[in-house]
Specification:
Order of helices and strands: EEEHEHEHEHEEHHEH
CATH architecture: Alpha-Beta Complex
Number of strands: 9
Strand content: 15-25%
Helix content: 25-40%
CATH superfamily: Spore Coat Polysaccharide Biosynthesis Protein SpsA, Chain A
Radius of gyration: 16 Å
Distance between the termini: 25 Å
Number of helices: 7
Number of domains: 1
Strand order of the largest sheet: 5-4-1-6-8-7-9
CATH topology: Spore Coat Polysaccharide Biosynthesis Protein SpsA, Chain A
Oligomer: single chain
């Protein structure tokens, strides 16, 4: 586990957003396989390494995804209104975290389709959140985005998001309230088949 002294005082959970239908991909992108494991499986492993509760928000193809992951290691929440956009998954993830963790301090928002994210990067976000009580975001390509740690005092702002508005909107509207940690590999998110091929090619060259 990538734990650190003092983490026990931070009551938080990781929320993995994985409810989309991946229409541009043409298949269930959460189950794209890399090194013998589906893409969502890697996101789960990295979140579990933080030694905090992990909530996975599913929607489209939820039964297929559940049958291909170690569901007993995480808390599965199905967003039946996933077609309303990522904001609906954030709302459900926040509500699930508040139910799961009494006295919740904040949540770590993670996407299932950013395969370049590393466990050490997630830990650095969490450590900064524990120390500062501020929002802590990943900085890449000149903007702020997820993965990000969001303290409970900003949950009301997250719950006001609508449609396809994600945490990125909140983070970039309040840059003075955000600690930024640069991590360019976060720029790689998988929306199309070409995105996936580019990721595979880039990692085969490393």
């Amino acid at each position: 586990m990538l734990n650190f002294h003092g983490m026990d005082s931070l009551r938080t959970a990781a929320v993995i957003l994985a409810a989309g239908a991946a229409r541009r991909m043409g298949q269930v992108k959460q189950l794209l396989e890399y090194q013998g494991k589906p893409m969502i499986g890697w996101a789960i492993e990295k979140a579990i390494s933080l030694d905090i509760p992990v909530i996975v928000v599913l929607g489209a193809a939820s039964n297929d995804i559940i049958s291909n992951i170690d569901a007993h290691r995480v808390n599965i929440t199905v967003n039946h209104h996933w077609a309303r956009g990522i904001s609906s998954s954030i709302h459900i993830g926040i509500q699930s975290a508040m139910t799961l963790v009494p006295g919740l301090s904040g949540v770590m928002l993670v996407l299932a389709d950013q395969p370049g994210i590393s466990s050490p990067h997630l830990l650095s976000l969490l450590k900064e959140g524990a120390a500062s009580g501020k929002m802590v975001a990943t900085e890449y390509m000149g903007s702020l985005g997820v993965p990000a740690y969001i303290p409970v005092k900003y949950f009301e702002n997250l719950l006001k998001l609508t449609g396809d508005q994600g945490a990125k909107k909140l983070l970039n509207e309040s840059p003075g309230s955000v600690i930024r940690i640069p991590f360019e590999p976060a720029a790689m998110d998988i929306d199309t088949r070409q995105d996936w091929l580019n990721f595979l090619q880039g990692n085969s060259e490393n």
